[in-house]
Amino acid sequence: MLLVRGGTVVTAETTGRADVLCGADGRIAAVGLDLEAPVGCAVLDAGGLLVMPGGIDPHTHMEMPFMGTVSSDDFYTGTAAGLAGGTTMVIDFVIPERGASILKAWKHWREKAQKAASDYGLHVAITHWDDTVHAEMGILTRDCGVNSFKHFMAYKGALMVDDGVLLRSISRALELGALCNVHAENGDAVAYLQADLLRKGVTGAKGHPLSRPPEVEGEAAQRVIAIAGLLGAPLYIVHVSTEEATRAITEARARGQRVYGEVLAQHLVIDDSVYDDPDPLRAAQYVMSPPFRPRHHQKALWAGLASGQLQTTATDHCCFCAPQKSAGQDDFTRIPNGTPGIEDRMSVLWHHGVRTGRLTMQEFVAVTSTNTAKIFNIHPRKGSVSVGADADLVLWDPDASRTISARTHHQNVDYNVFEGMEVTGVARHTISGGRHVWADGDLRAVRGEGRYVERPCFSPDMTAELRRAWVGV
Ligand code: URP
Ligand code: ZN
Ligand code: ZN
Ligand code: ZN
Fold first, then answer.
1. Which end of the chain is more exposed for a tag (fewer CB within 10 A), N or C?
2. Phi, psi (5° rounding) for residue 460?
3. Count H helices, E strands: the chain?
């Protein structure tokens, strides 16, 4: 047992002084003023600290086979780094090979994830369509704790699905009470622009953003919103990076459509000037999709989070080291796409969000944890500080500062996209399932201690009543 004493509890709803007692079962046993420490209970002094629900990163890719290689953070190193930054749960992606059984792929990912140090859930990607996929979506939702399916509108010839697959899959998910996630970029347009740029001799990383301009994301977002709207299905768009996609989501919500948008910490603070770096490796390190954007897009993303039109923050944590990034030194289309971020999301959001006045402390908790727990139907077990919830907490020092660097981070990757950034707002302690796993610089993450979190279907916004109200039947 562990008593967190003397802190200020901040949730998505309220702020107030309270002690938090973490029970031996890993759940919160009591929240209140001046709690007694039971015999044998450890006491952690939270004086001057904020006690918040641990962060949830709904978008990570640990040890993911992609573009001819495998992302370098595995489920242990990646989730351990998350704990060091105050993130106590991730939702990663099962990526079945095209034509393969999605159920077998889920089982394979469950095996890989046994080594996780923090709790985790799994979205399952749909990369093709046939009767087996239809049937196995039913099994995954009924027996495997999966309530979300992912679709890539980009990566033509690899993970991309067309509108026909989107229609079938979103319709099937709706029937099962599951939510569809979408990577919105027009993959045909990207492939066309890539070929055109290569033909013109543009081979460096600069070609990456040129082949994926904002319109490519805006069009795909509008298209998938229209498809979900036809079916009366809710929709979750991952890594929204442009004002165009933000506007598409905002307009759909104003029409009554249930569309959610996720923003990456990286897109909020890094702009497209990184592709001008004279060092080709450094430019390649920023190759991810969607790419970094001209600065004015950041304003739209922050406004989206503050206004509630965009609900969650993530990192799309997907690490590739220098030798992996170098595979694309003569052809930008071969640079493995992805950037690290899991360890720094919370600090970046606090420093650039709360300290600048863009977000309140409550909004910070909402966009780093609670909204994700609600959308993926694991609230109040996750994303809350309440009796019976999992004792996943971050003890936050709002005044402490640190300088982000690959030299000191715990992520298994040889660079950091936030290198040199000084941030104020630091995770001093992290508690995961009642265990004190990050203690003022001491990482005590344990391989395999993370549990798989089953996520039930039919979240409150997927009830039959709401669906009928929307579809009008
Ligand atoms: O560049 C990225 N984002 N890599 C990971 C795969 C994806 O698109 O999410
Ligand atoms: Zn993506
Ligand atoms: Zn613009
Ligand atoms: Zn991703």
1. C
2. -55, -30
3. 16, 19
153 Cα–ligand 2 center, Å? 9
Q: pLDDT (tens digit, 9 = 90+) per residue, 218-273? A: 999 999 999 999 999 999 999 999 999 999 999 999 999 999 999 999 999 999 99
ipTM of the complex in this document: 0.94
> CA 333, CA 203: separation in Å to the nearest integer?
8
Q: List, in order, residues 6 or more apart from 267 with CB less than 8 Å away.
A: 239, 240, 241, 290, 292, 293, 297, 298, 301
Burial 203-213 (b: 16+ CB within 10 A, else e): bbbbbbbbbbb
Tell how far the Cα of 291 is from the centroid of ligand 2, in angstroms. Answer: 10
Give the CA distances from residue 368 to residues 7, 50, 96, 345, 427, in Å, rounded to whole numbers and listed in that order.
Answer: 20, 15, 28, 8, 13
Q: Cα torsion at 84, 87, 91, 94 (round to 10°)?
A: -10
pLDDT digits (tens, 9 = 90+) for 83-126: 999 999 999 999 999 999 999 999 999 999 999 999 999 999 99
In which residue are the tokens 């196995």 written? 136
C-alpha 411 – ligand 1 centre gap (Å): 17
List pLDDT tens digits, range 200-217. 999 999 999 999 999 999
**Is residue 85 a contact partner of residue 57, using CB atoms and an 8 Å limit?**
no
In this prediction, residue 473 has a pLDDT band, given cuts at 50, 70 and 90, of very low
- Among 67, 152, 316, 342, which is best to mutate for testing ligand 1, by the most ligand atoms less than 8 A from CB? 316
Q: Which of 288, 315, 333, 335 most suits a substitution to test ligand 1, by most atoms within 8 Å of the C-beta?
A: 288
Compute the distance between CA of residue 221 and CA of residue 245 in angstroms, rounded to an integer: 6
> Which of 308-317, 331-340, 395-404, 464-473 is predicted with the least confidence, judged by mean pLDDT?
464-473
Nearest residue CA, atom 4 of ligand 1?
338
Its pTM surpasses 0.95: yes
- Nearest alpha carbon, ligand 1 atom 7: 289
C-beta separation of 287 from 208 below 8 A: yes
